[in-house]
Specification:
With 81 residues, this protein is α+β, with helices and mostly antiparallel strands. The chain has one domain. Helices cover 32% and strands 15% of the residues. Strand 3 and strand 4 form a beta hairpin. The chain is elongated.
Length: 81
């Protein structure tokens, strides 16, 4: 079973399901520095996926203009005219 976690930065308060970076500078190859690197990498991946999705599906940024009062029923199919 996988656990669900949220990734946040310093602006969020720490909770049970939120993972955020350790504050301050840490020595090289320490567990805190490796953890910070992995959290930052995960945040970058999520931000890139969301940016890519919003650029590909630009039609979802605008409201869809559908006129439901002009419905025509033809052979048990509903056609939007």
């Amino acid at each position: 079973m996988f656990h669900t976690f949220l990734i946040g930065d310093e602006a969020f308060t720490l909770s049970e399901n939120l993972m955020k970076v350790y504050p301050g500078q840490h020595p090289r190859d320490s567990k805190e520095r490796i953890f910070n690197y992995r959290i930052c990498r995960a945040r970058r991946v999520v931000e890139n996926v969301l940016g890519y999705s919003s650029s590909v599906f630009r039609v979802l940024r605008k409201p869809m203009l559908l006129y439901t009062s002009y419905l025509a029923v033809k052979k048990s199919k509903v056609l939007i005219i």
